[in-house]
Amino acid sequence: MNFYEKVYEYLLSVPKGKVVTYGMIARAIGHPRASRQVGNALHHNPRPGIIPCHRVVNREGRLAPAFAFGGWEKQAELLRAEGVEVTDGYVDLEKYIWSE
After folding, report:
1. Percent of the chain scored above 70 by pLDDT?
2. Annotated active-site positions, please?
3. Number of C-beta neighbours around residue 10 at 10 A
C-alpha cells in the first residue's frame, strides 16, 4: 500500500463528528514527519464524499484555507452537517479531536 492509500484508509476510520490533524495521520501511518505530504494526499483525494478529507484540520484546529473541494467555507459546512461546531474557521480540538 502506498503513502496516499494509507492516508485514505486511515481517514475512513475517522467517525462523523470528529476531526484529526495532519500530524496525527502522519504519525498513525508510520511517517511522523510527513504532515505536508498528508495534505498533498488530501488535495488529490480520488473519492471526495467517500474519503472524508473535510475531517482534517491543522494542529491548532484551523480549517484548510485551500480546501480542495470548495474552500474552507465548504469544509466548515461539511463539518457542521456532522455536528462539529466551527467558529471563525476553527474547531475546538479538545471537544472534537478523535483518538483511536
Report:
1. 99
2. 53
3. 18
